[in-house]
Each structure stands twice: as C-alpha cells, then as structure tokens.
Design a protein that fits this description.
Layout lengths: L6 E3 L5 H7 L5 E3 L4 E5 L5 E5 L2 E3 L5 H16 L17 H6 L13 H14 L7 E11 L2 E13 L14
Parallel strand pairs: 1-5
Antiparallel strand pairs: 2-3, 3-4, 6-7
Helix pairs in contact: 2-4
Length: 171
C-alpha cells in the first residue's frame, strides 16, 4: 500500500431514503476504482480512486483493504491514520462505527471496532517477549470544533502474559 490511499465509500440507503426516493441512485458503478456521477442536468462526471466501495460493499472489505494494513504497520511502530471526509449524512459514521449500537452485528460493525480487535489479534500472535504501548483515538471536527469521541490507552501490554482486556491496566 502507498503512503496515502484515497477511497470513496457509498453507504447503503437508509429506510427513509428508500421510502422518500426509491432505489434510484445518482451513481453508476464502473469498477472497483471508478464510478460515474450523474448530476441534475444528466451530465456524467467520472471519478477514479485507489478503491471504490459501493453500497453493497461489506464493512469487512473496507477494513481489509484500508485499515488492516494500517493495523499491521502500527504493530511495527508505524503510526497510522484513517480520515473520513464528507457532508452530513454521507456515511462517515456508518463507515467508522457501523449502523448503530442496537443494529450492529459482526457483519455491519464499523472500522473502529474492527481496528481494536485487529490490534489485539495481531498482538496475540507476536513473540513472548514483545511489549506494546497502544493509544487509539477518534476525533470529530464539526463546525470547526474538535470533539473527542474515543480515546483509549494500553501501556506495557504483554500479550503473552495478559490475555483478557479485564487484566489490562488503562490510564
């Protein structure tokens, strides 16, 4: 993977969107890297990215392509960042957190929980002498205000000794 990967993600339509507008989309699928946008004037604009995830794409596919390499690099002491950008309702929260706490299941959960699980899965398979200090954070910038949504620290984490999250000291 290159230093910067730019992807487009189209979340599934909500039940309200389906009710109000049907299944009509302004996006025409081309392939895994390109889509065509049709505006109100029926003009077609073609966009290409490193990867395009359409509304039928599964959360696990987004994780495997985008976040899993970052998780693996992080365990080799390389910092990683995932940035989502878009207008309100575009699907940033859906991609990062999933559809919602009550609706979330193993298939629909977002990148955040998959990254946390991925980090701990990778540390389990490391050698017995490895020691980790892990810091995860998630911020939201909205209307020029920064809101911390998720900050978690694990210091002196020895996967060979501590195997459950309850035994991990947190500060």
């Amino acid at each position: 993977m290159s230093n910067i990967t730019v992807c487009a993600r189209f979340r599934p339509l909500s039940s309200k969107e389906r009710r109000d507008h049907g299944d009509a989309l302004c996006i025409q699928y081309v392939d895994s890297e390109t889509f065509i946008f049709k505006d109100e004037k029926a003009e077609e604009l073609t966009f290409s990215f490193d990867r395009v995830f359409y509304d039928k794409s599964e959360q696990i596919d987004v994780y495997r392509h985008l976040a899993q390499p970052i998780v693996q690099d992080a365990l080799n002491a390389i910092n990683g960042t995932i940035i989502t950008f878009g207008q309100t309702g575009a699907g940033k929260t859906y991609s990062m957190e999933g559809p919602g706490v009550l609706e979330c299941d193993a298939v629909k959960k977002g990148l955040l929980s998959r990254v946390v699980e991925g980090i701990f899965e990778c540390t389990k398979s490391s050698d017995d002498t490895s020691k980790y200090s892990i810091k995860l954070s998630m911020v939201e910038i909205y209307m020029e205000k920064v809101r911390y949504k998720y900050i978690c620290y694990w210091y002196d984490y020895f996967p060979a000794i501590r195997t459950s999250r309850d035994q991990i000291s947190r500060s």
